[in-house]
Amino acid sequence: MVLILLIPILLFSFLVYGISKNDKKLGEQDKALTDSSIKLLTFTFLSIIASVIISLQADIPASSGHGGFIYIIIPVISGVAILFLYLISLTIKPRKKIILGVLSIVLNIITGIICSITDF
Questions:
Q1: Is 93 helix (H, G, I), strand (E, B) or coil?
Q2: Mind telling me which residue stretches traverse the membrane in this protein (predicted)?
Q3: Which residue in 78, 79, 97 sits closest to 89, CA to CA?
Q4: Residue ranges per domain, the chain?
Q5: Is the dihedral of CA 31, 37, 38, 44 positive or negative?
Q6: For 45, which of 1, 79, 88, 102 is 20 to 30 Å away at the CA?
Q7: Largest CA distance in the chain
C-alpha cells in the first residue's frame, strides 16, 4: 500500500526536478517553472481537493454498495492525471503555462461536478 502511494510522489518529484534543471539554461519567458506556474500547480492541487468536496455533495444512495468510495476515488485519480499532464505540458509548451494551468483547474472542478450529478 505504501508503494502505491510512493510511486506518484516519486514521479512528481522527478518531473519537477527535471523541469527545474532545464529551466536554468533558458530565458525568463521560456522557463517552465516560474512563480506563476508554481501558483498554478498549487491551485491545481487545491482544485483536486475542491473536486472531491464537490463530488461528496452528491446524494449517495444507501443501496449503492460502495459506500461513497467511488465519489472520492474518481476525482482524485483524474485530478492526479490532470496534474501530471500539466507538468508534462510545461516541458513541451512553457509559453502556454497560464492557459494550460487554468484549463487543468477547470477540468478538475468539472470532474467533481460530473461525479456529483452522476448516479453510479
A1: coil
A2: 37-56, 68-92, 98-117
A3: 97
A4: 31-117
A5: negative
A6: 1
A7: 57
- CA-closest candidate to residue 85, choices 108, 55, 54: 108
Instruction: Kindly give, in sequence order, each residue whose CB lies less than 8 Å from that of residue 28, ignoring residues fewer than 6 positions away.
Output: 34
The amino acid present at 106, given as its one-letter code, is V
Determine the distance from the C-alpha atom of residue 9 to the mean position of all C-alpha atoms in its chain, rounded to a whole number.
13
Secondary structure class of 13 (helix, strand, coil): helix
Amino acid at site 1: M
- Three cell numbers written together for 101: 494551468
Instruction: Encode 68-101: b = buried (16+ Cβ within 10 Å), e = exposed.
Output: eebbeebbeebbbebbeebbebbeeebeebeebb
Q: What is the pLDDT of residues 23-61, one digit of tens each?
A: 566 565 566 667 777 888 888 989 999 998 888 887 776
Length of the chain: 120
